[in-house]
Amino acid sequence: MQRIAFIDLARQQERLRRGLDIGIGRVLDHGQYIMGPEVGELERRLGDFCGARNVITCANGTDALLLALIAKGLHPGDAVIMPSFTFCATAEPVSLLGGVPIFADVLEDTFNLDPESVKAAVLTARRLGLPLSGVISVDLFGQPCDYDAIEAIVRENSLWLICDAAQAFGASYHRRKVGTIGNITTTSFSRPNR
Fold it and tell me: Are 113 and 173 in contact (CB under 8 A)?
């Protein structure tokens, strides 16, 4: 019986191999393994693609969230609202910095943050006496969250909004490109194991 790979990485690499070898050779030739010209080019092209003014690359999506939280000044004990249906990397950097994840429910049809549950999470943080700093939204399955509703809650409560666009980078929300929504947008290019 012939086995057919669910994901045929060798075949995918076949199409890309020549370009990969040329690119790797270029990096080996100039020897700038950290912050070389390819990094600047990637940042420029990502910004052009989504319309973001400033783009900073890092190792992975978890580090991107960590950098965003540091940039927003998250302090130990600060609460951050996030969806209950998400990868563990959404809560990890909040906890690493001593923050308190407050989980909000998601909508049944999109699995994105439920704005009504975000409102309830604001009340939960207040009831617990936690200083509430912000919201991390997670766009899933190519679908951006309901940002009209979420941004209204964020403004009303003087919070910041970090958008995790790893699963919707390239999408648009009401003519706004994902990557330019919220105070900071993060993304990553790793794909889940299947």
Answer: no
Number of domains observed in the structure of the chain: 2
1 domain residue, yes or no: no
Could you tell me if 125 and 79 are in contact, meaning their C-beta atoms sit under 8 angstroms apart? yes
Range of the domain at 140: 58-186
| Tokens standing for residue 46 | 């990502």
Q: Check: CB of residue 154 under 8 Å from CB of residue 183.
A: no
Three-state secondary-structure class, residue 176: strand
Rounded Cα–Cα distance for residues 117 and 103 (Å): 9
Are 112 and 18 within one domain?
Answer: no
Q: pTM for the full model?
A: 0.87
pLDDT tens for each residue of 5-46: 778 888 888 989 999 999 999 999 999 999 999 999 999 999
Q: Do both 102 and 22 map to the same domain? A: no
